[in-house]
UniProtKB/TrEMBL annotation:
GO terms for molecular function: transferase activity, transferring alkyl or aryl (other than methyl) groups. It comes from Isoptericola variabilis (strain 225). One of its GO terms (cellular component) is membrane. It is found in: Membrane. This is UbiA prenyltransferase.
Length: 296
């Protein structure tokens, strides 16, 4: 891991400056833009649906968005040495787009903005969101290499939903089923997300829960947990589920069965990863449809 913000050097060559555009591109890629954008957009949409006005919704989006940036950048900063060791050319630091020190500064700056925006939502919701972000940082720093790698995902996803509800007007609390669904979504997303990197992780002594379970078991577990999250979202709200909720449940079940079958028969296939992410997307859609019922 780089200890200073010097441009990458090749053996025997002078310093090669990293241009502004390259650095910006590296920051975007290191932020893990797709999941960061989805989480931020979902939080903002939930806040608006729960009655938060434009200003409060923007504040929630700022807190969640900068929190996601801090988590993504800290992940690539902390993992820089591991990524170099296995030649992860898809990682911005390894590709020479920016340095680990730049990511460290970006992660800490984003964390400061996240703390200010979170606390601006109130003395109760603010610390809840900061606890969620702290859980994600704990995963990056240490827990990803332990059998408890799933715990930060479960806790942080649940706390994120709690934060959005507490930040909304009306003094409401999150429905227990909603927090449980968010926790299951986090665990399933964690297991699915590790599937493509199991070999690289093993080469650098990262042994979280999915690594300990093995590729085949993890490939079956990810869609199963995500399907459980969808089932909780469909069955949780009061009253019988509507056609859209039932449709989400049926689609998730089909995708989960396909993912589990492929994972059991062809553990090296990337299909279980893609199908698992599809189940996660269905879960997010189902949760979005149930937003009016997530607060009580």
């Amino acid at each position: 891991m780089a200890g200073r913000d010097a441009p990458p050097r090749s053996p025997g060559a002078g310093a090669r400056p990293v241009g502004t555009l390259r650095t910006v591109r590296g920051l975007v890629l290191a932020s893990h833009p797709a999941p960061a954008a989805v989480v931020t957009a979902l939080a903002a949409a939930m806040a608006a649906a729960l009655g938060s006005g434009p200003g409060r919704t923007a504040l929630v989006a700022l807190a969640v968005g900068t929190g996601q940036l801090s988590v993504g950048w800290s992940n690539d900063w902390i993992d820089a040495a591991r990524d170099r060791a296995v030649g992860r050319a898809d990682k911005p630091v390894v590709a020479g787009l920016l340095t680990a020190a730049t990511l460290r500064r970006g992660a800490l700056a984003a964390l400061v903005v996240c703390a200010a925006a979170s606390l601006a939502t109130g003395l109760l919701p603010g610390p809840v969101h900061l606890a969620a972000v702290a859980g994600a940082w704990a995963y990056n720093a240490r827990l990803k290499s332990t059998a408890w790698s799933w715990a930060p995902y479960a806790v942080s996803f649940a706390l994120l939903l709690v934060f959005v509800v507490l930040a909304a007007p009306g003094g409401r609390a999150p429905a227990p089923w909603a927090a449980a669904a968010a926790a299951l979504l986090g665990v399933g997303a964690h297991v699915a997300n590790t599937l493509p990197d199991l070999d690289d992780d093993a080469a650098t002594c990262v042994r979280g829960l999915p690594h300990r379970l093995g590729r085949r078991t993890a490939g079956v577990l990810a869609p199963a947990v995500l399907l459980a999250a969808v089932a909780v979202v469909v069955a949780g709200p009061a009253g019988p589920p509507g056609p859209l909720a039932l449709g989400c449940g049926a689609l998730a079940a089909g995708l989960a069965v396909a993912a589990g079958a492929v994972a059991a028969a062809r553990p090296r296939s990337r299909a279980p990863f893609a199908l698992g992410l599809a189940v996660a997307v269905v879960c997010v859609v189902a949760l979005a449809l149930a937003v009016p019922d997530v607060a009580v």
